[in-house]
Amino acid sequence: MSTPLFWRVLMAIDRGFVALTGKLEVSGDVPPELLGKPLLLASNHIGNLDPFVLIAACRKIGINPRFMLAGGLLDAPVMGPALKACGHLRVDRASANVGEAMHRAVEALQKGGDPIAVYPEGKITLDPGMWPERGKTGVARMALGGGIPVIPISQWGAHEAVYWGNLRVSGWRDFLPYLTSWLSAVRKRPTFKVHFGKPVELSDLSAETMGDARRAHERIMGAITEGLVPLRLDEPDVPKFHDPTRPTTGSSPWRPA
Predict the structure, then answer these.
(1) For residue 33, which phi and psi values (nearest 5 degrees)?
(2) Where do the DSSP E strands lie in the chain?
(3) Which has the higher per-residue pLDDT, 172 or 251?
(4) pTM exceeds cut of 0.70
(5) Which one, of 180, 192, 203, 211, lies nearest residue 58 by Cα?
(6) Whole-angstrom Cα distance, residue 219 to residue 201?
(7) Closest to 146 measured CA to CA, from 116, 108, 106, 118
(8) Strands (E), 119-244
């Protein structure tokens, strides 16, 4: 499956936007033998800007990610049709059709082409230390069900560019936290760190064996956390950057001892 031209244009614009906002540092890579084959990219989720940073980092190493997106985004006027045209896939997390969405994603991956990027946590972490939250086994089930390799991706720094903001945006005032925090980032130039880890070892696990999806999920989250540690060596407990709009109601079972 080739990358739609419209998505290539948007990714080029995204790379300029990220360069305007801060400094991008990318480490690690995707093994050459996995390029052009079914591949899942599993990343931690630290803020509203990190999908843009992830796209820019992927482009820097020469891959074009597609995303699994909430149905609400794909149903939105203007933006929804544009996202569909880019080849992104739908998942309704609260729906009984999640399993069907996962099956469609596996089928899309098995056709080859671009990898699919997924956030196993399903939302921005609200852990006080911004370590990954527990997450769900969807990525693990796709990997085991389709025999698809998983590259763990660790991100740090994007949370400094755009505030967590509001759960609902109903008027222009609700956009102010996002705009003011972004303008501040343009002045301060935070560093966005993205690390591509080694493929997670899942060859000894099976989709048919009870408990293996959970075991695979734990390995994936453990690999993401392992890659995150060196990105934030000077912030091992809580982030130095304080976002006054972000709740700290979550908890991370993956936080290093």
Answers:
(1) -70, -10
(2) 23-28, 40-43, 66-70, 89-91, 116-118, 150-156, 191-196
(3) 251
(4) yes
(5) 192
(6) 8
(7) 106
(8) 150-156, 191-196
